Amino acid sequence: MKVKTPIPRAKELDSTLSLINEGFNFMSSRRKELGSDIFETRLMGQKAVCISGEEAASLFYDNQYFKRKGAMPKPLKKTLLGEGGIHGRDGEEHHHLKRMFLSMMTPERLEDIKRMAIEELDAKASQWETMDTVVLMEEVQEILTRAICHWAGLPLKESEVKQRTEELVAMVDSFNGSIARFKRAAAARQSQEAWLKDIIQDIRSGVFNPPPYTAAYIVANHRGTDGKFLDLHTAAVDLNNSYRPMLATSFLIAFGALAIHQYPETKMKLQKDENNYSHMFAQEVRRYYPFTPAMAAKVKKDFVWHGYHFKKNMMVVLDIFGTNRHPDSWNRPDEFIPERFENWKGSPFSFVQQGGGDHYVGHRCAGEWMTVMVMQAFFKYFTENISYTVPPQDLSYDMTRMPSMPKSRFIISNVQKLKETPDNILYREHGQSIVRASYSH
Ligand code: HEM
């Protein structure tokens, strides 16, 4: 970790606009210019310390030093994350809620979401055979909305699929400072929360009875540390937190499809899947491509680190994208090399696309396991179960857009299904057969 003393300051008085304009390049270009993995700046008028790399992430995810209360920018509460949910909680309140989220993620339920998503994908692929061109990312968004709502126990009507998909995408695609995208996402959040409040009330009053292992049932019946039901608004925000983020996966699935196209040798390796190659491939897609730029927290109590005085309530920003590509942790960090995961030691702090540290103790993403499983299954499906061509299109992606995506949203044509059913993906994993019945409820 490079630390210059005294800790340098970014050249601009307040970096908010530079962060919005430079996106994923902002932190890395300042670190390069200033020759330091720690630098000071101001964000939205507040003094902020930006830190990058594995050692920085291990500090950032140490609950002794940081809290989340008041750290999240207001616009994100109105759009992506909501007000009062798990992201802004600390201490026992956070642990209690986190246990609720992780209780949804049993091995059986992870297999369920994989199966539901693959079955939706397989049904869509039959339609793609009749279409001239398919905008893959948009199709994947509908597939994931259908699957995750089903998984979460939400009563999604066929007539609502388009609306709910658009709302979820708007909420996920909202964190870059564009006024138009902010407005769309804020309206989407209001609509989703209103929908969820009705569902939660119906569950609590016994009118609607989803299975007890679903997110809808679990959140509606969850009792806080005070022994009472979550208030209706908080319950709606946290129920949304249990399925909305699945739409983030559509961005990484589009990037994965791009990687299969741009690194054609990966296609055969995915088909053979030796040494669980599809897992390594999914991991590299999550490490390499830009999705989460940074996370913010506030200092809990004064402390000194690398000679720098972190003062209580100071804003600290962890460079997520830069940590995933930090040269201290990764060889040839700016190259796409799935095999790097073959001997990876699995540090919880060098690869933090979905947060770092321990899932149970800290704020690391509750949906990380399902993200990896769904991505891995989709990449296998794209290479084993269908064939397609990739017509000329703009496959570039903009590092100043947050979140980023292939500009064309990845268009495919001439889709042909190569297998009648997706059983090769659902019921055979690494040469072992899985009993179908054990995964149906
Ligand atoms: C590409 C997919 C995803 C990405 C990039 C992603 C990213 C993240 C990030 C960066 C955090 C915050 C870490 C922190 O606060 O330090 C987070 C937290 C969280 N994610 Fe995800 N996520 C994804 C998928 C999912 C899925 C599929 C779910 C559930 C269905 C989910 C549920 C959550 C929850 C509940 C939290 C809050 C955890 C806490 O505060 O303790 N995420 N995620």
UniProtKB/TrEMBL annotation:
Cofactors demanded by this protein: heme
Keyword Oxidoreductase recorded: yes
Keywords carried by this UniProt record: Heme, Iron, Metal-binding, Monooxygenase, Oxidoreductase
GO biological process terms held by the UniProt record: sterol metabolic process
A Pfam family annotated for this UniProt entry: p450
Residues given in the record as heme binding sites: C365
Entry-linked Gene3D superfamilies: Cytochrome P450
GO MF annotations in UniProt: heme binding; iron ion binding; monooxygenase activity; oxidoreductase activity, acting on paired donors, with incorporation or reduction of molecular oxygen
Protein family (similarity comment): Belongs to the cytochrome P450 family.
Name by which UniProt lists this protein: Fatty-acid peroxygenase
Source organism: Planococcus massiliensis
